[in-house]
Amino acid sequence: MMKKFTVTLAALALIFAVAFPVMAGGKKAGTTLKVGATPVPHAEMLAEIIDDLAAKGIDLQIIEFTDYVTPNLALIAGDIDANFFQHLPYLESNDEWTTKLVSAFGVHIEPFGLYSNKYDTLEAIPSGATVAIPNDPSNGGRALLLLADNGLIALNSNAGLEATELDIIANPKNLKFRALEAAQLPRSLDDVDAACINGNYALDAGLNPIDDSIIIEDADSPYVNVVVVRKGMENDKRIIALQEALTSAEIADFISNTWSDGSVISVF
């Protein structure tokens, strides 16, 4: 009789667990949303919406990363639910990422610039100068396109967004290129003549993309920063709530007030 009673209790416990999600800290299971982000400006924007999501029963946890590779690996592994640090050309530069991940929505653009601790103008950059560029295909191509748009080099017309040094058809100043991890570029400025630096790393290093860059991208560039999720999660209620919060009028105001110089530009 006791054995049957034990089995019945176990069955009831299983039914209860299925019917009523486990409570942790007073919150229903499944309401946590872990988003990986680089510190500036992505984590700063996310911090602004913690209370908004909490009001909807979602515990937003911001996981900071300082590189561009780990956030996608963590998302694929299921360690985080979404990430916010990259643009679409970067996501599309890796076959595994495009197979398993998808852009959920766009938020802003961080204009990409050329910086130097030695020279203030393009004209001052000497022949044979060394220019550091990101070592990933999408941002390396972005750097070469920026230089080409400003007449420092010329690229093959078919080069596309992932242009490489092999696509250079004219280099009147005989520039030399040094490919480095994007996060290292601000630290390279004393070692090279100039460096093409992503907006988030420039901001994180205390550089003002508008005031400190020698040249900078136009605001209508294709490099919109997006929130990325695993395929099939685009319509998850937490992701929809995240989109509503990150593309709200309040965040548009936060962007325009915090980066009033145009170093971060909302796209919504």
Shape, please?
globular
What about the largest sheet? 6 strands, mixed
CATH top level assignment of the largest domain: Alpha Beta
Rg over CA atoms: 23 Å
Helix content: 25-40%
Query: What is the number of E strands?
Result: 15
CATH second-level architecture of the largest domain: 3-Layer(aba) Sandwich
Write the layout of secondary structure elements.
Blueprint: H1 2-19, E1 23-24, E2 27-28, E3 32-37, H2 39-48, H3 50-54, E4 59-64, H4 70-77, E5 82-87, H5 88-91, H6 95-100, E6 101-109, E7 113-115, E8 130-134, H7 137-149, E9 154-155, E10 168-170, E11 176-180, E12 194-197, H8 199-204, H9 209-212, E13 215-216, E14 224-230, H10 237-246, H11 249-258, E15 265-266
Parallel strand pairs: 3-4, 3-5, 8-11, 8-12
Antiparallel strand pairs: 1-2, 5-14, 6-14, 6-15, 7-12, 7-13, 9-10
Describe this structure in words.
- This protein folds into 2 domains: 32-110 and 223-266, Periplasmic binding protein-like II (D-Maltodextrin-Binding Protein, domain 2, 3-Layer(aba) Sandwich); 113-216, D-Maltodextrin-Binding Protein, domain 2.
- The chain has 11 helices and 15 strands.
- It has helices spanning 2-19, 39-48, 50-54, 70-77, 88-91, 95-100, 137-149, 199-204, 209-212, 237-246, 249-258; strands spanning 23-24, 27-28, 32-37, 59-64, 82-87, 101-109, 113-115, 130-134, 154-155, 168-170, 176-180, 194-197, 215-216, 224-230, 265-266.
- It has 268 residues and is α/β, with parallel strands linked by helices.
- β1 (23-24) and β2 form a beta hairpin.
- The strands form 4 sheets. It has a 6-stranded mixed sheet, sandwiched between helices. A 5-stranded mixed sheet has the order 11-8-12-7-13. It has a two-stranded antiparallel sheet with strand order 1-2.
